[in-house]
Specification:
Largest sheet: 2 strands, parallel
Mean pLDDT: 89
Shape: globular
Number of helices: 2
Distance between the termini: 24 Å
Strand order of the largest sheet: 1-2
Amino acid sequence: PLRLEMARQFLVAEALARQTMSVLNIASGPGREFQNGWGLPDGYHVRVTCVDQDEAAIDFVQQTVVPTLPY
């Protein structure tokens, strides 16, 4: 969806501008905007913390999204 792609583009631009970045994602849901990484060059680091009241969403992040991340 367009919203996820726009969020991903914003976050990638911020990561490229900062080189090291932390993101606190409140009401994260399944965190699909982080899935499959962002194609950042070596030396760029992003730390993402997802918070959601839905335990199934957090389980999805841990089992499906985290393994796809390069950082």
